[in-house]
DNA sequence: GACGCTATATGCACAGTGGATATAGTAGTG
DNA sequence: CACTACTATATCCACTGTGCATATAGCGTC
């Protein structure tokens, strides 16, 4: 994987696709294709990860240690199993990185509002 | 400039540097070099726009109509004038785009928090 | 078996970025 | 004056992240 000694903050800012993938894996382990669907669902269809972006992002964040691929016996038993699928789980480091990114976004949003950029409606 | 008929939302998401530039121009007209300093100041030195990014971003957002270059007689009179400087002002469209981006970031942050990514400290 | 959906992977092109380099005006110091 | 450091803009090169298209193939249903 990536550098074990790096702090979560040193990973920022996260690529947009990466952050969405981490959010999709926050509550449960998923395989790639399911991540695409989950991201679309959470964003009311507004964020549609392309397959190219998704699978290459996963390769990257596995290497960086944000997520880990599940072994065969770690897979969710309930799920009807498709041998083609590869399941991923958020690591503690990945969670820490996602939290750091959330904090960074909060600060950015605070700056934007302090600049007078108050959106009309929610 | 760019397409006059496009809505602010169709411009999203904004490149990170662009959003910082718009924030730096929210309260007063500035020249390029001053924008670099202002962004660094507002972010406590955490965001340091490189010259390459800054000047190309400005060229792009002038073309897109987010900002407009000031004529000689529009320049701030108080400022000691340096002939090399080129001053820029946020346009109403640029402000609308920045507000739309602010709204987008707010929604993203809400999603992140709903995913359980609550940062430890502010 | 034909079709559409699921699932992963890769090739190609392009936008945005950082760092380096180029050019030159400005200001202060000796 | 010469020298240096800072201000100011612009462009070049390399790299990352992204979308779209393509490739391969298993799965489900009619």
Describe this structure in words.
- Two copies of one chain form a homodimer.
- Chain A starts with 15 loop residues before the first helix and ends in an 8-residue tail after the last helix.
- Helices cover 47% and strands 7% of the residues of chain A.
- In chain A, helix 1 crosses helix 2.
- With 122 residues, chain A is mainly alpha-helical.
- A three-stranded antiparallel sheet of chain A has the order 1-3-2.
- Chain A contains four helices and three strands, in the order H-E-H-H-E-E-H.
- At the A-B interface, helix 1 and helix 4 of A face helix 1 and helix 4 of B.
- The first copy, chain A, binds a DNA duplex (30 and 30 nucleotides) through residues 15-18, 31-34, 49-57, 59-60, 82-86.
Topology:
The structure is a homodimer of 122-residue chains.
Chain A: H1 16-24, E1 30-31, H2 32-42, H3 51-64, E2 67-69, E3 87-90, H4 92-114
Antiparallel strand pairs in A: 1-3, 2-3
Chain A binds a DNA duplex (30 and 30 nucleotides) through residues 15-18, 31-34, 49-57, 59-60, 82-86.
